[in-house]
Design goal:
Number of helices of chain B: 10
Largest interface: A-B, 37 and 38 residues
Oligomer: heterodimer
Distance between the termini of chain A: 74 Å
Radius of gyration of chain A: 23 Å
Strand content of chain A: 15-25%
Number of domains of chain A: 2
Shape of chain B: globular
Strand content of chain B: under 5%
Strand order of the largest sheet of chain B: 1-4
Number of strands of chain B: 4
CATH architecture of the largest domain in chain A: 3-Layer(aba) Sandwich
Number of strands of chain A: 16
Radius of gyration of chain B: 19 Å
Number of helices of chain A: 12
CATH superfamily of the largest domain in chain A: Response regulator
Shape of chain A: globular
Largest sheet of chain B: 2 strands, antiparallel
Order of helices and strands of chain B: HHHHEEEHHHEHHH
Helix content of chain A: 40-55%
Helix content of chain B: over 70%
Amino acid sequence: MRKTLYLLFAMFLVTAFMFSLNACKPEKKTIIKIGINAPMTGDIPKVGEATKFTAKMWLEDINKAGGLEVGGKKYPVELILEDNETKAESAVKANTKMITQDDVLIIIGPQSSKQAIPAGDVANNYKTPMITPWSTNPAATKDRPFVFRGCFLDPFQGPVLADFITQEFGFTKAAVLYDVASDYPKGLAEFFKQAWEKTHGQGSVVAYESFTTKDTDFSSQLTKITQSDAQVLFTPQYYNEVALIVKQAKELGWTNPIVGSDSWDSAETVTLCGEACYGKFFSTHYAAAGAKGATKAFIDRYTKLHGYVPDAVAALTWDSILLAQKAIQDTGKLTGKIKEDRQAVRNALANIEDFQGITGNITFTEQGDPNKCAVIVQISDKGEYEFYKSICPEK
Amino acid sequence: MDYFFQNLINALQWGSFYAVISIGYSMVYGVLMLFNFAHGDIFMVGTYIGFGIATLLLALFSAIMPGWLIFIFTVVITMFLASFVGVFVEIVGYRPLRKAPRASAAITGLMIGIIFETGNLILLGAQRLSFPPLIKSISYNFKGIYFTNVKIMIVVISLLLMLLLHTFIQKTKWGMAMRAMSYDFLAVPLMGVSINVIAPLTFALGAGLASVAGILYGQAYPVLDPYMGVLLGWKAFVAAILGGRGSIMGAALAGYMLGFIEIFVAMVFPSTFRDLIAYSIILIILTFRPRGFFGMAHSTSLRL
């Protein structure tokens, strides 16, 4: 008994000592800390990888320039990367840690809506600016003055896809298969259904089927869909599920088109899905094939460094991080008092106008959402994402 | 009508995985009276071993060997290697705790599972792997019912494995020793049958079965990740309980039944409610038959 007590006491001392070491770090000059909240493990690790690679590329540029210049003074920059494991609760934990312990000035991420919605709440409560590059669900930024995003919204994407299918194929009956336990697919499925039924009337979505995260067998849902008179299947899922859905649909005799959304836009989709996905359409934020100017420069650099063409997540992260940089620079000067600086960065971010990003121009609305165009992409026979059509919001 | 038969085929394939995996739970319970909660993750490790062997064989021999031959070699080599994983789990995880309270041993299984998952995460990274198709999938359309040769293969191989296991346990000396051990694992060692031989053997058999299930799973659902065994393991565990603890036939039947319930619930009701309704049904069954289909009151014996 006594031995155990001694052991516990010793462990306590060691931990306390380690903490005190941490706390005693001298904080002399201001370091700009930028938090990255990314899914490094879990369901969509490829997305986390793209986020990390892009952030590292940006940091390289900054370090080459000798730091980030704000108001004529150069500050060193540090990136704090936290893994949210593709889980909502871990994303919240990561944000809380970065805000309260690491004193980050601004947070980039999380990427998918399931994490961005709860994590955005934390950032807003702590009055820390956050930009989610890829989350398209409206709830992520809604009524949160400190949360911004780098992409379009699902209430825009849903109708874009519904209109595209109607115009391109002339179909009137659609089926939807989505993950009911994840905010993004669930939200987008609903927006798509609304838009489709608005054009084609009530009941024109003839099969509206769902599953839950981690399911791998969709045979009963897909059987329902193939037996209905649906002409097209819309599935707003992430790359790991896309591969399984497309394969199983084919085996169950589904020969009609399958259309996806911006969650398909990962470098991994074609790797996992293979030839079964060739010829499929999906909506996204930018098309890598045939890009020009700054976009092309980014794509070439990324491809050279990492051996594959950057997906939309990478491009949006790049834009978001440059937005953060611009906002920090626009503040004019950093006081070193983290709370004031965060407020200043937030105000500067809200005032940004016509920022020239590689995925389009960005001006934030009241809600912190940019008004951007969507791109329809077709997966070519070589597995490349080819530009097919661009659809812009009405001004 | 073809709607019904289509789902029947779907359910047969899906149930096969539950059946083969739940047998692993039941067998270990029969011999040691504890559930090996690492079994779902042993299945995952088996799948990854299968992936490695398949990739290796494809790289070396795809020019001279047809796909089905590579498939057979993959199955045999993977079973052999995976059985060592089972033995390893028994020796490292369960043997030191054989006299410990049951709950401690059950917790061990959970921890070994987590070690396997995170170990895999560190070793291979978090990205998904795509299991190479070993047998070219051919789709058949029989009066509006679609099935593939892979689906038939999965069901046939699963049934064959269960038959083999049945024969092994009923007809061989080793099988007899296992059955004896399940009657009384305190008295049987006094007759010269060592628990330290029978327990690893049981784990090896379970792991071997799970690894074949893994290869078949890779053919049907070719996206692998380190956590793939968790949910499947849980549900197979439900099947093992439903079948009656320690009953192999019961586990197999309950595995298929679970597959059928899941698929047909999604067929009749909105798919959002699939697991809610499916597992409520199972809860009701267990309320009326608390020992499962083939479980008996005071016996833990390994029955077939």
